[in-house]
Specification:
By secondary structure, this protein is of the alpha/beta class. Strands 7, 8, 9, 12, 13 and 14 form a 6-stranded mixed beta sheet that branches. Strands 4-3-5-15-6 form a 5-stranded mixed beta sheet, with helices on one face.
Length: 305
């Protein structure tokens, strides 16, 4: 059976370059350390080290296994750290940035409830649709849609969020209801700026394959909430996160369009720079957001299916 102590000892032997030195760190005799290494090699059925009187050298198999060993031990150590942190108190300040629409309309009331439940916790919330390097911002956490460009960030998926094509009943009464995404080219589409470029190429999943439609309109904004307000006030058709539009959809202020042509879902993440920032408060926030997002999407499901 593979033993955790043997993995740790193997890593230390490689780092020390000497079985006796590694054995002393584990309070073992050199013979016991050699036996543990032999036990590991027998389990894997490959030699891991080439031994000589003066040095140790990794075999090709040993080099490959060392990387797996390091990854496994790192994951276990991080897991143990997280479990220990759960014993801590929910206290301190969370410095959080979030998209404007999601932040104002859902996140603020959710955070109010969390703060009422945990009075030793405080929040500094910044709302912005600008995507900037998290390391350069004076924040601990970010809520972000889409895939993460920076793979070094630590992220927790909060949910997979459907996007919805929607418009106010008043707009549809004036201009008609499109029966196919291609007809959006005859409608006033409300556009959102992404990196100073209008997001005007809308993607859909058709019966056979995905396709896209180029749209246009007389209103463009870099603020997602502004786009939502235009949609609610009957100014045009919007392609938005169903989560951002959830309260308006549930209240009937906007209605979903073309449910048979579903746009792709988006991942929503809670992101921090490194694992040292994962405190009991961060884990609490992650779990609270996952639960509330799942509940909100469950309320929307009958409207979007």
């Amino acid at each position: 059976m593979l033993q955790l102590q043997d993995l740790k000892l193997f890593r230390q032997i490689v780092q020390s370059g000497n079985i006796s030195a590694a054995a002393r760190l584990f309070d073992l005799t050199p013979a016991a350390a050699s036996a543990a290494l032999k036990r590991l090699e027998l389990y894997l059925q490959v030699p891991l080290l080439v031994r000589s009187t003066r040095s140790l050298k990794l075999t090709a198999a040993g080099e490959k296994f060392l990387q797996h060993c390091q990854n496994a031990l790192t994951a276990l150590e991080q897991g143990a750290h997280e479990m220990q942190s759960l014993k801590g108190q929910i206290a301190g300040e969370l410095r959080l940035t979030a998209p404007s629409d999601l932040g104002r309309n859902l996140l603020v009331p959710w955070l109010d409830e969390v703060l009422q439940q945990y009075p030793a916790l405080s929040v500094r919330l910044e709302l912005s649709d600008k995507i900037s390097a998290l390391q350069s911002e004076q924040v601990d956490l970010a809520i972000r849609y889409g895939e993460l460009a920076d793979s070094s960030l630590v992220s927790f998926e909060l949910g997979r969020i459907p996007r919805v094509l929607c418009a106010a009943p008043a707009y549809l009464a004036r201009h008609g209801i499109p029966s196919h995404p291609v007809e959006l080219q005859q409608h006033n589409c409300l556009l959102y700026l992404v990196e100073q470029r209008a997001f005007a190429n809308w993607h859909f999943q058709g019966p056979q394959q995905p396709f896209s439609v180029s749209v246009s309109g007389n209103r463009v904004s870099n603020d997602a909430e502004v786009v939502k307000r235009w949609a609610v006030s009957g100014q045009g058709i919007a392609l938005k996160s169903a989560l951002d539009m959830s309260e308006d959809l549930l209240a009937g202020r906007v209605v979903p369009l073309l449910p048979e042509f579903l746009p792709a879902t988006q991942q929503l993440h809670l992101v921090c720079v490194n694992r040292n920032q994962i405190s009991p408060a961060v884990l609490l926030l992650r779990d609270q957001l996952r639960s509330r997002i799942a509940a909100q999407l469950a309320r929307l499901k009958p409207l979007l299916s």
